[in-house]
Design a protein that fits this description.
Largest sheet: 5 strands, antiparallel
CATH architecture of the largest domain: 3-Layer(bba) Sandwich
Shape: globular
Strand content: 15-25%
CATH superfamily of the largest domain: FAD/NAD(P)-binding domain
Distance between the termini: 33 Å
Number of domains: 2
């Protein structure tokens, strides 16, 4: 999917650069975004800047606090980002057998969430700073649709683990990391007997890893808590919800904007419309 999006963008004349860390968003004397400065020292100028970085980082790390002013800096720093999702990748020697599901069904999303009480208990664990002993799992077997993702006859499984809080009450993620992997396999085994014997390798990505490696504040995969105060006209902040963000010329196009996280493309599509509309008005 990423390759298809990149190809489409290049077809319209976009230049894509990777490994080019942005150090700050450049603003002019009027407080308008005019480009970005890279960590290498290079500056890139543009008429508008679109940020897919989470809103907390966009405001508090990339913009000059003098330009923003103390109120917006304070509000940005208080955007709630309590990450509670871990990711477990499994390498499998074969296709797991889930009770009552043929291989065709396994090409979709596999959700382990037996009921509301089960979900409540999982959320309670995260609320009190503990890894859930009975996690909600969302799993996919992408190699069923794309065999190139694994050696012939083998498969990969990608599992989202809910709930695994960024801030643990006791211990740290170095000691809890493998326990998340164990709990994931144990939970899946209950619905797909024999799966544990198929696992040849695994990788556990914690909320701390998501923050460190992918720049997600608090390890929050949706760039901000989808609470009632953070939806619709309130996402990510009241007064900054129509993709124009922080300073003139800056647009927010990631999961921190409405309609939020998930692979929908909605925030980016909506932001692109606003950018095109702004360009027409000059």
């Amino acid at each position: 999917m990423a390759d298809a999006l990149a190809a489409a963008a290049r077809a319209f004349g976009a230049e894509i650069r990777t490994g080019a860390e942005v150090a700050r968003i450049v603003t002019n004397s009027d407080g308008r975004a005019t480009g970005v400065a890279l960590r290498s020292g290079e500056e890139l100028s543009s008429r508008v800047v679109a940020s897919a970085v989470d809103p907390k980082q966009t405001l508090t790390r990339l913009l000059d606090p003098v330009v923003l002013g103390p109120e917006l800096v304070w509000r940005g720093g208080n955007i709630r980002t309590p990450g509670a999702t871990a990711k477990v990748d499994l390498a499998l020697s074969g296709v797991p057998r889930f009770d009552g599901a043929d291989e065709a069904r396994l090409r979709g999303r596999i959700v382990i969430a037996p009921g509301i009480d089960y979900l409540e208990r999982a959320a309670d664990a995260a609320k009190y700073g503990r890894v859930s002993e009975e996690p909600m799992l969302e799993a996919t077997l992408p190699s069923l649709s794309d065999p190139t993702l694994a050696p012939e006859g083998q498969h990969v499984m990608s599992v989202l683990f809910q709930a695994a809080p960024y801030a643990l009450r006791e211990g740290g993620w170095e000691s809890e990391r493998e326990r998340v992997g164990d709990l994931t396999v144990k939970t899946l085994e209950a619905y797909a007997p024999g799966l544990e014997e198929l696992v040849t390798a695994r990788r556990v990505t914690t909320p701390v890893d998501l923050e460190r490696e992918h720049g997600l504040s608090g390890g929050h995969v949706q760039h901000g808590e989808p609470g009632l105060e953070n939806f619709f006209a309130w996402r990510p902040l009241l007064g900054h919800a129509r993709y124009r963000f922080g300073v003139p010329g800056l647009f927010l196009c990631g999961s921190g904007a409405h309609p939020g996280g998930g692979v929908t493309g909605g925030p980016g599509q909506n932001a692109s419309r606003e950018i095109a509309s702004a360009a027409k008005r000059g």
